Amino acid sequence: MPRQSTDRITPKHDHRFKDRAIWTLAAFLALSLALAWGLPSPARAQSAKTAGKAPAEAKHEEPPACLTQGQQVLNQREFTKAAELFAACAKANPKSAPAWYWLGMAHFLAHQALPAREALERCLALDPNYLAAASILGKLYSFDKAKLAQAEDLLQKVLSQRPDYEDARFDLARVYAITGRYDQSFREFNVIFKSEVRYALYHTELGKIFKSMGLEKEARQEFNRALALQPDFTPAKDQLKALDENPSVSKPDAKSEAKPPAR
125: closest CA among 151, 98, 97, 104? Predict the structure, then answer.
């Protein structure tokens, strides 16, 4: 799989999942959220109670029992086998939105973008308010320059109903940056950073945005913050190494008046 250059984030780049490392990081972050908010209704409600929050999603139909085995396999990170089990479940229950959601998640985690998109689209056709599916589909769309508008619409819908959905906000911030709306991107990152940040990926992606704007000092700060959270985080290390080897990062666009978020 060819690697995608991530030195500069601009609307001209095709942001599909060409970098396997970034795909994997995004996938496991999505899985952690999916297991919290994409479980069958009773488990999702219990998870919300534990977190002290009530889920804002509309109630969905009870998932078919055939999902249980697939979820167990998915927890063991056997994504291809899980996809096979979820596919059989969806075939037996073609009108079950949860079945299509979990099939899409398994394909996504197995780095199979097209079947993941198709399954998640089927889920949302059956249940437009299935926010877990909308968030993952928005993520997938955000890596395709032809689908950025649809990604933005989906992610904004998720956040309008679930403002605490951190991963959707991160992806929306990325979409704003990719399309050159840096002020809006920074505002979304500021919301994320108001709470305790758990993922080095967030700081690394913000650092890459700063780097694309020619803001080397701010970029270095974010890469170092990522490494403070996760000292062995290779993407942040690689970005710092690239800056050390070539400190003359690209200059900011003269038309852009975006300023870094106050930290």
Answer: 97
Spatial distance between the Cα atoms of 57 and 127, rounded to a whole number of angstroms? 11
Q: What is the pLDDT of residue 10?
A: 36
- 239-257 pLDDT, tens per residue? 999 999 887 654 445 444 5
Q: How far is CA 246 from CA 3, 9, 126, 207, 213, in A?
A: 20, 17, 50, 16, 15
Domain residue limits, the chain: 16-158, 180-263
Question: Same fold for the domain at 16-158 and the one at 180-263?
Answer: yes
180-263: which CATH topology? 1.25.40
Work out the average pLDDT over 158-171.
92
pTM for this prediction? 0.72
The domain made up of 16-158 is a member of CATH 1.25.40.10? yes
Burial class of 208 by CB neighbour count within 10 A (0 to 12, 13 to 18, 19+): buried
R_g of the chain, CA atoms, integer Å: 19
